[in-house]
Amino acid sequence: MAGEGLAKMTTYEKWLQEEGIDVVGGYMVEDVRTVPLKPWPRKGGFGVHIRLIGAEDCDAAYVCEIPPHGILKPQKHLFEEMILILSGEGKTEVWNEGGPKVTCHWQEGSLFAVPLNAWHQHVNTGDRPARYFAVTDAPPVIDLFHNHDFVFNNNFVFSDRFNGQTDYFSGAGRMLDEKTWDTNFVQNVETFDLRDYEVRAKGGKSIKFELASNTMIAHISEYPVGVYKKAHRHAPGAHVLQLRGKGYTMMWEEGKPYQRFDWHRGSLLVPPRMWFHQHFNTSHEPARYIAFRWHSKKFLPGKHFHEGENWWISTRLGGHQIEYEDEDPRLREIYLEELAKEGIPFSLDALLAGSDKD
Ligand SMILES: [Fe+2]
């Protein structure tokens, strides 16, 4: 029969259905800390898959919760996985087949990556639920091989990434350049020391994490009270999770209306491919987020998993960043109105003027 044997869904889509938990879509998740979860047979805890439009299945996210003093089922898989602990305290045992177990002790704010295809088992050692947020490259891996046994029951050991080192999760690391920290464990992303980075926000700070020799990375960005970042656009898949403050993000396709997304601690947003996005801080404290995305600088991915071209270069010079002086004045008017409602002074101009005097 014509059409017989032709797929109507991707292997990843079928796998999501088989998982038996909800899948959240759209442009953002208002709060990963409170998003409802369902019992998750594969993990032995509770969870929800997150498949936002801007990810385009080049990567994906999920939230998982471990009951008080609970232990999840051991897992291993052929896709990378970065984990941010949202609440609770516990540990993750990690081992290669037949190798020694190495323990990662974590608490709220801890960030680490499960080494590729290593066995791992999460344990909640506390009296309250432990919830974590994860970003993976499961969609391309599951789609490419379309064989769950290969992806979830593969005995290959990536000893170049993890070889049973007892100090693997000690938190030690090294700076690869002025703002890239190469490590396997970050104790607390909420307090981790950042470096000055003003390419996209006056007074801005940043740090980039290369984790577990992954091809995916994470970075933190922070910008001051009364300041907004410059708009820019790039490749899909950057999962932006708010760690501190509140505000809103304007997102738009060139020539189309602005779409506004209000956020606070716990909100998750993924800007779609080549949509401009601009973050505005309307809180009384610096706004801080962590983004999970492609593009390790240790293991450069090809253009298909690239972060995008020239997103830090002015649109006037052929790049994809709108400098403050080139932006639509209406965006600033809206911001000033929002600051006035909160009684927060506008600091950006004073900061910019200060830098002119240097
Ligand atoms: Fe961005």
What does this entry show, briefly?
The protein has helices at 11-19, 138-145, 148-152, 329-342, 348-357, and strands spanning 23-24, 28-29, 38-40, 45-50, 60-66, 81-87, 89-95, 102-107, 111-114, 119-124, 130-136, 173-177, 180-183, 185-186, 195-196, 205-211, 216-223, 231-232, 239-244, 247-252, 259-263, 268-269, 276-281, 287-294, 321-322. With 358 residues, the chain is mostly beta strands.
Secondary-structure topology with pairs:
Elements: H1 11-19, E1 23-24, E2 28-29, E3 38-40, E4 45-50, E5 60-66, E6 81-87, E7 89-95, E8 102-107, E9 111-114, E10 119-124, E11 130-136, H2 138-145, H3 148-152, E12 173-177, E13 180-183, E14 185-186, E15 195-196, E16 205-211, E17 216-223, E18 231-232, E19 239-244, E20 247-252, E21 259-263, E22 268-269, E23 276-281, E24 287-294, E25 321-322, H4 329-342, H5 348-357
Parallel strand pairs: 1-4, 13-16
Antiparallel strand pairs: 2-22, 3-4, 4-5, 5-11, 6-9, 6-11, 7-8, 7-10, 9-14, 12-13, 15-16, 16-17, 17-24, 18-25, 19-22, 19-24, 20-21, 20-23
Helix pairs in contact: 1-2
This protein binds fe (ii) ion (FE2).
The site of fe (ii) ion (FE2) has 5 residues, from loops.
